[in-house]
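Quick look at the format.
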Amino acid sequence: MTSVRPAPAAPPAYPAGPAPPGARPPQATYRLQLQPGFPFAAAAAAVPYLASLGVSHLHLSPVLEAVPGSLHGYDVVDHTRVRAELGGEEGLRALAATAREHGLGLVVDIVPNHMALAPRHNPALWEVLRDGPASPRARWFDVDWEAQDGQLLLPVLGGPLGEVIGDLRVDGDALRYHDHAFPLREGTAQLPLPQLLDAQWYRPVWWRLARTELNYRRFFSISELIGVRVEDPEVFEATHATLLRLLHEGVIEGLRVDHPDGLADPAGYLTRLHEATGGRWTVVEKILADDERLPASWPVAGTTGYDALRRIDGLFTDPAGHTELLGLYHRFAAPQTDRGGDWAATARRAAYKVLTHELAAECDRLTRVAHRLCVASPDPVLRDRAPWALRTALQELLVRLEVYRPYTAADAADVVTEEAAAAARHAFVVPEEAGAVDVVRDLLLGGRDGDGPEHAEFRARFAQTASALRAKSVEDTAFYRYVPLLSATEVGGDPGRPAVSPEEFHAYCARVQHDWPLTGTVVSTHDTKRSADVRAALAVLTECPARWADTLAEVTRAGDGGPDAQLAWAAWQTVFGLGPADGGRVRRAMLKHVREAGMYTSWTEQEPSYEEAVDRFVAAGPCGPPGEHVAALRTALEPHIRANVLGTALVHLTMPGVPDLYQGTEDEYRALVDPDNRRPVPFPPGGPGGSPEPGGKAAVTRAALALRARRPDAFGAGAAYAPLPAEGPAADHCTAFVRSGEVLTAVTRLSLRLAEAGGWRGTRLTLPPGRWADVLDPGRKFTGHARVAELFEPLPVALLERVDATGDRGVRPARDS
């Protein structure tokens, strides 16, 4: 018999109304990755330390019931229960109480887009598989019941049915296959196995059929996560009731929404959520292109902060050096630079590959919807369009999108441009067939024959497919194929133009302070491919590309060049960014790298001989004796790496928005792609009893967070942001800004180039009126004009706060140059 719990008959009610008086927007949050090895009780034990940092809220990974053993919690199976492996609702309430005692609130990650395709643990899905489309919960899941003869395909078998049918067995009211269990339709348990399979509302199939045959929406191309239709009000109520109840009871105070781009109607969902929470602080995991804006109509505080990450990283990247580094990369890796090595071309080739492989089923479903609309249309212009032509038009338009997705028909006009349509038409050999491009574009824009429910469905599915395509082709494929500078291949990044000028950075900050002052900002997360400290080190390579080329020449002479040059370049950069570390971490990261790139091996078509060659190369080269040459270069560049690390941390903690610190990153934190970056960290990270090293990252972090807590008005929604330009021969190397006339941040930019040019040479900073105290060294006071060389002594960063006369005895005017 199965142990699946029955789904509740109706969702529990939650109280509506405004937020309770205790709820407040965060000043700074601290992200904790909950898992069975780090449950609520462990988080509660860390609260005194975390409160001492100066954050206002703990940011928790998903807390609802997930697949047993899950290390992340995004594979939700039951929205009515807080996860038992973490301590259940009692444990969450105890954590909240402990946090409140120390002045902290809780922000929780919520997952509206998908659930785990794990019927034995997922009571709602179990019911749907048993009762089919007539089940009251069939509306929960985004299933095309008209496809596959009305059966929901489950890609769980290890081989074709004929080869594994002996592993299927009936056990009471369940069908079992190894660790999988599925419900049996009433009255079918006694049928012979072949007939029994035909009689179910689902069909277990070979896992390889997921590529082309699936008839349910998934999270990206992950078949184990099935899409949820939260646009349906009843589904919203059922899947959000528990979290909303906890929110209105004050257990949690804010929300982080995972992947809203996967939803049919993100704006409608966020509006409903805003109304249900009473307007509680909410941010969305939305990745914005450089010139893209968060929809102003969304009732949220902003994004989770990848747009800030892009600007912070770019500030410490040398544009001229990156161009030189790119040329060196081409010469080193040619002819293996993905047939040319151009970023835009690499991204487009990756998009074609993803659409025709990983997302082939999604593309087919979208084509079916388009063809239905054409067949049913009274407009003769839309008639007589072959499915293959519509599919080609869809693919050619999708690969040319430069943002994740449109949200409305008006958005589609800006996203699916006439320029993109013109390029898409060239894919057709017969010009008359190219009219399919205009048909698809008209359907997206709501033109020709009206705008009914099926048009809305088509636009929604196009947008959902676009967002999955962008994530899989750019973040999960092209970022692993285009590797001149690994720090640029980050979530939200632009590897084709990684550098951001100070002017661009200031313009971005001013816009954020005006439009989204309480948005989230991040530099390291559970999804970043490299932590901020690793990227800060890699950015230094743009200041010394020739030295990097010389080092590669040495290591290439010293050992094996690797199975391919692209992989070798990426592996050497990885060990430079990471520094001394367990070689197993690097080898695991590089194995993931080559599988994601999909050039010579992949997750589904693994090439053992190539992967073994990669492992041997990484062990013997980057993680072997030749790696000492890279280590020596890193040691020589350590002062400049330190300048980037401290500058990144200070800018992040004092720029507009609400900074989110990932666990352990208040101190030096070097991590690679998950699961490396989801490892539990000790609290405090540096060990018990130790105080932060003066001038180290932990000391800078503590000082900045304490200042935010002490002067909240200088950083909040009503605060101001103003650039503070330096004057003198090295002015471009000092980036400074003032918050509300009360706090001044100054950091060194491109410190290696600065040193090579002769240093600060009399460059000075005109301070705003008043007397200013150095937060990092309280004995130092400034007024008037500060010589930058003196300001950045001994640290490459400075954090000042304006003080009144009573707190300003012994003020030493900064000497003019």
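Next, a different chain entirely:
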Amino acid sequence: MGTNRRIASIFLAAIIMCFGSFKTVQAAEEDKLKVSHSYGFESVYKWGTLVPITVEVDNNLKNIDGELQIELPVFNPEMGITNNDNVTLYTQNINLPLNTKKKFTLNIPISRNITSVKMNIVEGKNTLLSKDLSLGTALNPEDFIIGTLSDDFNSVSYINKVSMDSSSMGKRNFNTKLVKLDENSISEDANVLKPISVIIINNFDTSKISKAKYETIKKWVDNGGMLLIGTGPSYNKTLSIFKDNFISGDIGNVSSIETKALYKMLDNNSTSSMKLDALNINIKDSNAIIKEGTLPLVQRIEKGKGVVAVAAFDLGLNPLVSWSLNSTFGERLIGNNLPDYYNDGNAYSRMVNGGGYNISYGLGNIPELPIPKASNLIIIFFIYIVIAAPVNYIILKRKDRRELMWVTVPALSVIFAIVVYFSGSTTRVTKPVANVLSTIVIDAKGNQNIQSYGTVVTPKKSDIKIEAKDEMNIRPIVNLDYYDNKQNANNSKGSKTIYSKITTSTKTTMEFYNTGVFGQYNFIVDNNEIKKGALQSEIKFNDNKITGTIKNNTGLDLKDCYIITSSAYVEIGEIKNGETKNISEPIKNYAGNSYQMLDNMFGRQYGGSAIQSTKQIQEKRVKEQKRMLMQSYFDSFGGRVTDPVITAITDSQVTKDILVNNDAVKKYNKSLVVSNVELSYINGDKAEYPLGSIVPKVSSLSNKLAYDPGYGFIHGDSGEVEIKFQVGDKVKVESFELKQNQSNNPNGPNFQPLTNKGYIFNTVKNAYEECDYNNFTASQDKASQYVDKDNIIKIKIDTTGLNQPGTIPQISVKGSVK
């Protein structure tokens, strides 16, 4: 017994010594392998975006040829939960000789507000170092980050607030953070710049920015960023990189001017003035938003979804720096010139890399995959039931061998299983397939902006590696983790299973382990190929029809084409590439919400008969996919069409092959094509705007109310809402009518019209007068009383007693050309 105790004691001591030795070795390695890190932009970042995490490794341990890994818990968007037991590894190959120090940057899609991530340095199967990297508190997706490129950051730090008068949400104040940028902190990936809402360039030598990063800035603007450039005496520095047609125009001299324009921007009645050193610069395709006489002081240029604003003066010199109103001026300068999409109240959705539920659902729905005929399966199962039960029983009973049923029934089951197997052999998927859905937005110059999402569907459990072929690349989708947006205190604890691995290099690869049967693995496809080709149109509204011609020069064969306005649509069918199509179609009305419009186009795809034929199922899947593509696009603009567009579906290939385990897989694809279209409501010397074609704008809103532009309804506590209807400036209004635009979809949302006390502004009396805004007609002899000098008709509604969401009225206008 004593011998056994001595052996146990020796064994226990050995274990303790081993663990003690292990800890000593780990401590020694950590001492020789030192790591520091930074994240975001000066430790500022938004959850729901790509976040750059830079790790600096000081290696005094040994030559290292391995991987730098960052772990993130897996978020399941369908379940709405984050699983800390399953992790995705974001990795980068590293080669680090002994006694060297290097920095490595990984762009990590952080979908939730977490306080830390775990970093590993791995060589082969050996983990050389594991460490938690702390992250500060993330900003919300709708918050503002202003990045500044300046040799004197503090001189422009007065531009530190952003607010705007939104047509959908009234006065909006944004939580704003300032960050300092330089030529090194700007990523070559435009997606990393997405969280930055505004970039200011002032008194900075832009020639220090590389060509690749300059292209990134331009792409960032096109995708919806706002670039504010100060010039004045430092214009040679700030404009030095702009040698192409991104910003072009005539540059004169810098001169000292006396101006009241900046004061008047804040208070139109102000008589104060200041002296500025201003550059005489006229920029092509710009609008002067602030000017002194004929000299433009700030010019605005539309670029894709974004905006460039160029000031003729240096933003960081006196008198601006010492001006007591400089912060208010900066706030107004940015707020008044933000890209138009901020008006819909859903601007934060532009910051999200994913396509949301609609894209994910659409990717998983592949109508091209054949399905077994339901009738064949029903017949087979019916025969099986008849033979396995009554026929089998009767035969064995006649032979007085009923005890054999325990043999014959399983045998028949096996036989019919084989029959079912072979009957569905032509519809069976045996290898991974890819499905790619794209949106192609065509601008007025024929530039095609392509955004593609892909998925790989696997028919069996396996490990797969996904990558893109040729010039394309892929990257993970960021899913906003609304359901589980809590700080992750236990990120580094417990054993974990590696769900997937994302390796970034020249080519990104995505590996998924032990995939589920018919698992769906989504990603974003980046196609760097530039394509051009426009939809040219001359169309007008007349006598409740849309008429005219559309010429397809897109290079794509188009089908399921529609012209869609804010309140109506027409179906125009198929237009082959190079074809010019004449149209004359009566409009179909809807109440302004895209969900209602798509219900009218495709029917309600949810619900319905439980038993459907194969053909019915196939047709439903095709319609669902088209609907999801269109809904995803319209949702990114608040669920409502404001400017008329042409939409179409194309089967044309817009992406290259997707590789799974190094082999190209069968790829299915569909693309939604969207192009703005000029729709004229003028016919000869007459003009007619049908009900709902003039989109109402909420110009002021009580802080207890909210406006949803998608559904066009007001909700909240009591207060007042003022609504403007802007008529085209070439039209003399001769009559108009206010009423509700009722949807012809009986299954639409059950929102009731507002029935509270209402008023219409009388320009003659310069005051509001009471009216029934849901049933108000101004005939030719009275219409001019309600139209101001800017061709605006205003109404006001007192929502006292509002106890449910209420829709606001629409307007129809008739008139003549001025």
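Residues 533-655+665-679 form one domain.

See the schema section for token definitions.
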